[in-house]
Amino acid sequence: MSSTDIAMKTTNTTLSPYTSPKEKASPNDTAKRSGDSDSQHWRYDVSQKRQKHETGDKLCFKFVSSGSCLRGETCNFRHDTDAREHCLRGVCFDFLNKGKCERGPDCRFRHSLQDEGDKHPSRKPGSENTRSSRSRECWFCLSSPNVESHLIISIGENYYLALAKGPLVEDHVLIVPVEHMPNTLSLSSESEAELLRFQNSLKRCFKNQEKEVIFFEWASIRGTHANLQVIPIPSSKAVMIEKAFNLAAQKLGFEFVVKKFDSISDGRKFLKTQTDGNSSLFYAEIPGGTILLHHVEEKDTFPAQFGREVLAGLLNMADNADWRNRKHNKDEEMKIVEDFKDRFQEYDPNR
Prior knowledge:
Elements: H1 3-7, H2 21-25, H3 27-41, H4 48-53, H5 61-66, H6 81-88, H7 93-98, H8 128-137, E1 152-155, E2 159-163, E3 173-177, H9 189-207, E4 211-219, E5 228-234, H10 241-252, E6 257-260, H11 264-272, E7 280-286, E8 290-296, H12 306-314, H13 330-344
Antiparallel strand pairs: 1-2, 2-3, 3-5, 4-5, 4-7, 6-8, 7-8
Helix pairs in contact: 10-12
């Protein structure tokens, strides 16, 4: 069982019959004794896992949703990797946190810790049935009832282009593989050719608007459905991009591997050699043929919204770093999509 399953209590839980009357008598005394016991235990157990579970019973939403929390060990809420895994598989956060969800049947997330494909013992994780189940719940799979089709701009054989939910800037779009894959670097060479066509078309489109384009991806080993972020910025700010990323990296205590290539194609070929399935990586393709790459080991923490946060700072749009601050209603999203389609039509490789 996962730690989340073990920790979850039913509503009719009773006190242990082995608790002594003295321990039952005074909650304050109990807490005091518990504290004394813990202080003795800390002499022998100071593991990071122990520290995290001392923070509290409630889950940290920031950690579960993004994979990182700036408060770290000082956070008052629990950083539970099992809960994050369930959340990535479409389980409702309120259900994980409280054991119930007030939205009930109106909630778009699952109220069960078991994947539909896992109900049968003969099915192994990663099997076709399990992937099919996950893709039905995925926001990015075109076959999923959860996909928001009004955000789609252009559809190819292996990739499609869509408006980002809560875009950083008005023309913030995503290049998304049609297949349910964890990152864009693990797809076939045929798929890669179509991705390059999208990238080159977007670069030409934005250049006509006096903008440069940054492509970046958080390729996590725990990723669900890949999406390559595409953010245009004014050409006047292009010279500051690499410096902005390097300063942000220094604050987190790492340095980027920096490579320069003559074409997007050469840069992507290099990136595909960097994936081994054992570590996550973040990369950014910035103007001038430069690739910024950082390998992230599983024991390390890394902000899932790192790329967006860096560019929000560069563009003086700190409030837009969180996509939830930029949510639009459906009518507004449809208008943004139509406006983008009009400007992108002559460059669209799928027209």
